[in-house]
Specification:
With 76 residues, the protein is of the alpha+beta class. Strands 1-2-3 form a 3-stranded antiparallel sheet, covered by helices on one side.
Length: 76
């Protein structure tokens, strides 16, 4: 939202399902647009942190979703 982009331009539901399934089964990353080019730079590291358990999603101020590092340090 902060970037002014529709989420569908960054990651489709189908792509996210493929990414999550691969992580759950310890398989290689799927070849999806979300993990390539500018999209990877935009959300790739956040996805990796979430799927590895280094961060968690929480509801922050004004009901915004925020990432929190597992040790409690916030990444707004």
């Amino acid at each position: 939202m902060e970037a002014g982009l529709a989420y569908e331009l960054i990651a489709s539901r189908s792509e996210l399902e493929q990414i999550i399934a691969a992580a759950r089964h310890s398989e290689p990353e799927p070849d999806v647009r979300t993990l390539n080019g500018w999209r990877r730079g935009f959300v790739g590291s956040d996805l990796e942190d979430l799927l590895s358990g280094r961060t968690a999603v929480a509801v922050g101020g004004r009901t915004r979703l925020v990432l929190h590092e597992v040790d409690g340090i916030s990444r707004d």
